[in-house]
Amino acid sequence: MMTFFTILLILIGANAVVMVLSLNGLSTEERKGNGNPVEQKSSNIYPLQDSSSKFKKAG
User: Fold this and answer.
1) What is the pTM of this model?
2) pLDDT band for position 52 (50/70/90)?
């Protein structure tokens, strides 16, 4: 039982360290961003293809 809690505590501690490092890296990336967010490239959005002619409506 003691072994289980030791391993659990080690994993929780490692998780906390990784989370802190990840959040710290995220905050520094936001500072490095482009000054004008309007000029940032946005992804293209394509319309869905209408495939209703292939199938009959249930009912």
Assistant:
1) 0.46
2) low
Domain ranges, ordered by start, for the chain: 1-28
Contact criterion met (CB below 8 Å) for 40 and 34: yes
Task: List phi, psi (to 5°) of 31.
Answer: -75, -30
- State the DSSP string of 3-56: HHHHHHHHHHHHHHHHHHHHHHHHHHHHHHS-S-GGGS-----PPPP--GGGSP
d(CA 21, CA 14): 11
